[in-house]
Amino acid sequence: MPAYAIAQLNDVQLGPDIADYLMRIDASLEPFQGRFLIHGAEPEVLEPGWTGTIVVIAFPDMAAARGWYESAAYQAILPLRTRNSTSTAFLIEGTKDGYQAKDFLARIMA
Questions:
Q1: 3-class DSSP assignment, residue 17
Q2: CATH of the domain at 74
Q3: Other Cβ atoms within 10 Å of 64 Cβ, number
């Protein structure tokens, strides 16, 4: 199943470190078949409580997502982002094709 790296970013301090991070992140994704689904777009907030911006990166599976995050290439640039923003990041597995909300109910009731 696909997996995603998701980050919520606040208070990003644009400068040389963030520019360096942005110049190097694509190369860190390449070996793991990662690709940006959402990056740099302003959300249309429909319900209160959301702040910041979001980044979503897709991977073929959780092993690839974890491999990217733990890779030497990404770990080398990660401090460039964390020192220059307030952020929360996580990896999460997606759903299979044809998934419906009732599938969740069936899973938790089993």
A1: helix
A2: 3.30.70.100
A3: 19
